[in-house]
Amino acid sequence: MENEKLFNSLEAEFHLKFFCEEPYINAEPLYEILENYSSSFKKYHILLTAINIGMFKILIHPTTLTDLTQQLKIDFNFVFKICQGLKMLGLVVEDNGIYQNTEVSNLYLLSDSPFYQGSVFENIQNGLVLWQNLTNTLKNGSVKMREEVFFADNLIHSLAEEALCGEMQRTVSIVTELPQFKKANKLLDLGGGHGLYAIAFSKLNSNLQAYIYDFPNVIEDTKKYIEKYNANRVEVIPGNFFKDSIGNDYDIIFLASNPGGKNSKLVLKIFESLKAGGIFVNKHSFYSKKEESKNILLDIEWNLTAFEGISKGNKVYSFEGDLSYEEYMELLKEHFVVEKVIDAPAFAGYPLSKIGDTLDSKIIIAVKN
């Protein structure tokens, strides 16, 4: 009986503390993480849904909720709530019940706009699917795929749309201001993917013949961009630049955001393919000797997939055989005169916390001895 009384007394004391005293460690830091995730996830899906149901196409013109509901054939209350959400995000404006796109939406969220970002949304979704399977990946290993499939599937289209938002224009301005560019007749965009850089260079130098080198299946998409922009002085070269010839007598070789960007084997190959006095433009994110990470989230995402036949490093944009920035510059100076190194703030695009972000890339401009 005494034991039972003691137990009841201790239980009552425990409940008094449990229900009346807050935990000794505040939950705010954890809840701030969860709130940020929950809020961002819901905002993203409001935007994605508006694109998928064609709301922005209708809201090019001022439209009432009733008209919007009739055209979309969706419940009025949902249409109202989504419009309010888009208004909160600054993607539509409202005046006395009349809704219309903002300029940002008209420029980037309409499929017939030259700056439409549809592939970026698709690429983000693809990445999120990988993250949703993180537990399985930890248990079973990275998702294996061929490198050429990884880039051709959707990524190059996303990278093209991202580049058009500013990074391409800034990069192109840096290159076209070089005195050697104005005299150049032959340019190679090595591992060029979408080819927008080569296309732009050909448009800004009427004497320039440009070539885009990439995997055969990637090149099939490259051709579509060449046709889209009517680039009649741009040709494609299918191949694997680690194994195959990349051609010769180039005035400029441009290499950007590519697995070979920091590999010693490619430096000599590029040197031999350039004319005397030719320019090598390398745009990549380099690691210094003691640098551990540029972005831990992207390091994880980088390792969620594995390429067949090529070994990734543990850090985002790193591969087995990569040189550190210091080692790469030392090797480069054995064959080239380094004219200029430009840091990312001068040309970088806008981060999306996904593979494709510029991070702290550099543009290295070197002249063949």
Number of strands: 12
Overall pLDDT, averaged?
A: 94
Gyration radius over CA:
26 Å
Q: How much strand content do the residues show?
A: 15-25%
Protein structure class: alpha/beta
Largest sheet, order of strands side by side? 7-6-5-8-9-12-11
The poorly predicted ranges are: none
Account of the 3D structure:
β2 and β3 form a beta hairpin. The chain has 369 residues and is of the alpha/beta class. It contains 15 helices and twelve strands. A seven-stranded mixed sheet has the order 7-6-5-8-9-12-11. The protein has a three-stranded antiparallel sheet with strand order 1-3-2. Strands 4-10 form a two-stranded parallel sheet. The model has no long low-confidence stretch (mean pLDDT 94).
Question: What labels describe this entry?
Answer:
globular, 369 residues, alpha/beta, seven-stranded mixed sheet, three-stranded antiparallel sheet
Secondary-structure map with pairings?
Elements: H1 2-20, H2 28-52, H3 55-58, E1 63-64, H4 65-72, H5 76-88, E2 92-95, E3 98-101, H6 103-108, H7 118-132, H8 134-140, E4 143-145, H9 147-176, H10 179-183, E5 186-190, H11 196-204, E6 209-214, H12 216-228, E7 234-238, E8 250-256, H13 264-273, E9 274-284, H14 296-302, E10 305-307, H15 325-335, E11 336-343, E12 362-368
Parallel strand pairs: 4-10, 5-6, 5-8, 6-7, 8-9
Antiparallel strand pairs: 1-3, 2-3, 9-12, 11-12
